[in-house]
Amino acid sequence: MEKDKAKEKETKKLNIKEVTTCDATAQMLRKAERDGVETAFHRAADMKACPIGADSACCKHCAMGPCRLISKDPYAKVGVCGATIDTIQSRNFARMIAAGAAAHTDHGMSMLDLFREVVNGHIKDYGIKDPIKLEAVAREIGIETEGREIKDIALDLYKELERTYTQVEGEIPFAKRVPPKTLETWRKHGVVPRGAMREIMELMHRTHMGVDQHYENITTQSSRTALSDGWGGSMVATEISDILFGTPTPVKAEVNMGCLKEDQVNIIIHGHEPNLFESMLDSVNDPGLIQAAKEAGANGINLVGMCCSGAEMLCRHGIPHAGNFMSTEAILVTGAVDAMGVDVQCIKQGLAKVADCYGTRLFTTNPRCRIEGVEHIQFHEDKARECTDAIVEHAIIRFKNRKTPVEIPNIRNYGIHGFSHEYINYMLGGTFRGSYTPLNDNIINGRIRGVAGVVGCTNPRVKQDYVHVELVKELIRNDVLVVQTGCSQIALAKAGLYTPEAAHLAGSGLREVCETVGMPPVLGVGSCVDNSRILIACSEMVRVGGLGSSIADLPVAGAAPEWMSEKAISIGQYFVASGVFTVFGVTFPIVEGTRFHQHLFDGLESLGFGKWGFAVDPHEMARMMISHIDKKRKALGLDKTRERVLMDMAARQKLEAA
């Protein structure tokens, strides 16, 4: 029995060079193995993915199964109820979309609830930091703003955006932002979202045993639900966060584990909701708590972000970011983290064990996310500081009583983050003539080949960050401007691609644009929900003109090279349904060669939508995306040689005022 226990404690050794390209994470994985500590990298190596589940060729939606339809001929067998491989796969795919859309929608609704209480004066710790954006969003969806008080406009905006979630008929408010031809395609095929709650509920109903049994019909509702996320829940979360906490503008910021400081109290906030992090920012700057930290022997309090709420604070305030999803356990191995507070989404249960091994105080804060054995400090927006002050106080005590040797990787990477849609508009056209015209013009004249959104998670089934970095390097080398969100953004920031100097890695056309504007070839726009900024940018490119009349006409493409969550599938489907060719890596949960596979990878495009793509190798992924961009350029007549004119100040001054 003692031998069995010893074996259980033994940590399986990794070939660390094969699992991550992040030097800081690699250093901590070597330390974890010396310390006998297991991480997600080790668990992934020890846990083989189920091949039937990976292909989504199984159904467990009723008690007659589970049914497994794995065969050389996927149509040789059906489930007990008679369900075919196409029905089973489309149901499974739909349920992933429903779960992912629910996650983003619930996040968005939480932000909207906070907005309502702030506007009504019930919550005093937050306020409206960007009234200009509040008025702009209100005008876009038809709310009168001229001569009205901010509070009155805000109340009307709340009531209108609430329909995003609760409406049972009609079209969601942000459908007004969709290019007319794209919206026409949605209406033709019945995919304009009514309200997110209705769409998610209906999709779950349709995928119940014995209900919808046609993969094309299921896909229609999957698209409608996904669009209620991208143009609904996620978009509301982004816009309300900007209104309450400020719209991002470029800021120089530090990423990687070197942002930890041995002589300070280190606190990490990890999750997805910015309200916790915003309150923590106030707490760590409280003179009383700073004094308490100094009395405990620290030189101060060091606040650091991880994952998506970290990406928001990185873009909005320049708060240092320690690493993406696959580094969240590894950073605890430093022994330098005194407290980690988490809220919702992408929180590994394994954090609890690693935190315990190194004496880090781990706290859950949101009622939606509790972890067995982890202390919970409830975060209430109407008394936010009670929670965040308590976390700081526990962190100070832990600092004073540190028992674990500290080892911090001496690796820091600096870059420019915070390229919101509004700032890009200003950057290209100036204060009075803000416009995407220079972007469109440089796509038309060929300096910029097209635009790619490279987003998403990191996944231990592939080498951490590798596919993200190699894909983006290949894209910018071929004059494709890249925009990013989430964990992908941190991968590229660690690789040094977020500085204007990184333009030397771009093709000659993109390089010249970057050097003229003074921007990096890769633009970080925020967290997962901030993919909605990319949708808005696509709509603006259509509105400005010269690149077609629909999002599906644009020379753009998207990719999630290392995706791992159901949220990613929802994001992918709302981009596809919006008209964007979207490539995923790692794995894809559909049997190739089935009718459902053909529908997603070709059929949707023939209906006027985008389409899915899949590749594991980053260079193949880049080839697919560039080929698609070139196809769209040809359709627009942009494959011919054009005079290449870069917009200078004189040219900008000729633009009509927006």
The rounded Rg comes to 24 Å
Q: Fraction of residues in helices?
A: 40-55%
Number of strands: 15
Residue stretches low in confidence (pLDDT < 50, at least 5 long) are 1-8, 641-647
- For the report, how would you describe the main beta sheet? 6 strands, parallel
CATH class of the largest domain: Alpha Beta
Q: Widest sheet: strand order?
A: 12-11-10-13-14-15
CATH topology of the largest domain: Rossmann fold
Q: Structural class of the secondary structure composition?
A: alpha/beta
How does CATH name the architecture of the largest domain?
A: 3-Layer(aba) Sandwich
Percentage beta strand: 5-15%
Distance between the termini: 75 Å
- Mean pLDDT level: 94
Walk me through this protein's architecture.
Helix 15 links the parallel strand 6 and strand 7. The protein is an alpha/beta fold and 658 residues long. The protein contains 26 helices and 15 strands. The protein has three domains: 161 residues, Substrate Binding Domain Of Dnak, Chain:A, Domain 2 (Up-down Bundle), CATH 1.20.1270.30; 150 residues, 3-Layer(aba) Sandwich (Rossmann fold), CATH 3.40.50.2030; 229 residues, Rossmann fold (3-Layer(aba) Sandwich). Helix 6 runs antiparallel to helix 10. The protein is globular, with a radius of gyration of 24 Å. The longest helix is centred in the N-terminal third of the chain and has 35 residues.
Summarize the structure.
The protein is of the alpha/beta class and 658 residues long. Helix content is 48%, strand content 10%.
